[in-house]
Amino acid sequence: MRKRALPIFVVLFLSLLILLPLSITFLLSVVPAWSQAIPNEFGLIWWKEILRPAYIKAIFNTFIVAGLSSIFIIIYGIMGSYLFSYYDFIGKDLLFSMILSPTYVSCTVVSLGLIVAYVPLRNTLWMMILGNFVVVSPLVMKYVYSSMAQISKDLIETSYSLGSSKLNTFMKIILPLSRHGILAGIILSIGMCISALSIMLMLYNANWITIPICIYLENTTGTLGIAGAFSTILIIITLITVYLVDYMGEKHARF
Amino acid sequence: MKLELEKYGLLSLIGIAPLLFFFYPIFLMVKTSVYKNGTFSFSNYIKFFSSKTFTLALSNSFFISTLSVIIISLMGLIIVISVKEHNSVKRVVKLISSLPMVFSAYIFCIALIYAYGRAGIITYLFAKIGIDFPIHKFLYTKYGIVFANIVFYLPYFIIPLFSSFEEIDPNLEEAAESLGSRGFHKFRKVIFPQVLPGFITGMLVSFLLIFNQISIVLAIGTGKTYTLTYLLFSQYERAKIEMANTIATVSLISTFIVAFTFQRILGAIRK
């Protein structure tokens, strides 16, 4: 009995710390008025509010920025993974470390660097895409690389020895066999770009306000219900992302 | 010949991205920080280190990150040890603790405020049964940022630590037990040395993530607690780009020093 008490306490403690606050985010979105910390009534007023054109535009912007960023991120991730999986060259480890280095630097530093270096792109959609690319592509490349590196080298050699060209081998063998890793990378990339706030804080502009920026702005003006509704949307998107990445990972492991 | 051309073509395409979009911007940022009106000068750094606000932000960043990492590593170790032998509980713990890894830190902090803040639901419910739940007393101070860091970054420490524990050879534990080593003695002499590299790496990753984050400081600090990243953002908002570049460079150098120190410690342990 005593042996089981400690693990159960750990689960309860983590639930109190992590699960409870997250469920409160949803509560914020369905409570129009509060009396102290207790809901006065329940309703969908904040959800109707986010259907206003300005907020719909923010949702649309989020998907455009995340979609375009993910196209570049995934192309770079596949090409990089192919290079690291099938070629040997001097400084391979150094280049891999260089690609991963933005992961350990503050997003504000990355944003400022981009603003200083690429002044003409300031306040444009391209700057936001570039920001996402720098921050998210290292993680996606790690994901795709771990999947591509597992493909048997013998299979590739056999394909070449049977007269298949490099492009043909890539399209017909490498891509299909690493599809679960690539798909997980795409989902991860879209999920991360949709919820990106730190990198967007300094790179966003008035024409391209995204959901995380909306949450930040609404929270600073005290409109908690709208921030709650947007947060709930992001939480749902994130949960779907986690489930799909996990599912793809499992499929890949089974393969 | 064709193969070499292909390899170097792909290599240049992949290698140019970090150079163009990460290292070149950082080089320009550092360069701008050491130039004042077109001449080489350390005046921005002199201003930084002679300003109470800036030095306080630097010490706050180190204080918050160090305290958070110490608590995270102790808590993480206790959690992992408590549940490592209970597979079903371990799965639940892994699942719950992996949630903050995929959520936006800012949203998570808003949720924490509405749960544990002055007018938070948990604070209110505990007050109803006569308990003054203490988190709201320090939530809006730097200790509140430490609390949010602990909750948000605990998974980044726990998940790799679980893997380190799973990699321990069970024969080693059995051998230790057969030689009479049990309980804390077995943990100190046999188990902990095995997981120490993973433990140190987890501490390094958590430290760097906490030191460089801004979302938690923005949400919890409410403009009263300054850290380096927060000051960088506020200097940029006020169009003081030169000082923002200086802060960014100080932040980068601090990150490098910490990473280098941890690597030296890891190297010494592995020897």
Can you tell me about this structure?
The complex is a heterodimer of chains A (255) and B (271). Chain A is mainly alpha-helical. Helix content of chain A is 75%, strand content 2%. Chain A has a two-stranded antiparallel sheet with strand order 1-2. In chain A, a hairpin with a 2-residue loop joins strand 1 (34-35) and strand 2. The longest helix of chain A has 34 residues, at 53-86. The radius of gyration of chain A is 22 Å and the shape is globular. Chain A starts with a helix and ends with a helix. Chain B has one domain (52-270): MetI-like (MetI-like fold, Orthogonal Bundle). Chain B has helices at 2-33, 43-50, 52-83, 87-102, 105-116, 121-128, 135-138, 142-166, 170-178, 183-212, 215-220, 228-237, 241-270, and strands spanning 35-36, 39-40. With 271 residues, chain B is mostly helical. Chain B contains 13 helices and 2 strands, in the order H-E-E-H-H-H-H-H-H-H-H-H-H-H-H. Chains A and B meet through helix 1, helix 3, helix 4, helix 5 and helix 6 of A and helix 1, helix 3, helix 4, helix 5 and helix 6 of B.
Distance between the termini of chain A: 41 Å
Q: Quickly give the CATH architecture of chain A.
A: Orthogonal Bundle
Number of domains of chain B: 1
Please state the overall shape of chain A, judged from the principal axes of the Cα atoms. globular
Low-confidence stretches of chain B: none
CATH architecture of chain B: Orthogonal Bundle
Mean model confidence by pLDDT of chain A: 86
Our Rg estimate of chain A from Cα atoms comes to: 22 Å
Strand order of the largest sheet of chain B: 1-2
State the strand order across the main sheet of chain A.
1-2
Largest sheet of chain B: 2 strands, antiparallel
- Of all protein chain pairs, which has the greatest interface, and how many residues does each chain bring to it? A-B, 72 and 74 residues
Order of helices and strands of chain A: HEEHHHHHHHHHH
Q: SSE order of chain B in H/E notation?
A: HEEHHHHHHHHHHHH
If you average the pLDDT of chain B, what whole number results?
A: 87
Helix content percent band of chain A: over 70%
Overall domain count of chain A: 1
Radius of gyration of chain B: 23 Å
Question: What is the highest CATH level, the class of chain A?
Answer: Mainly Alpha
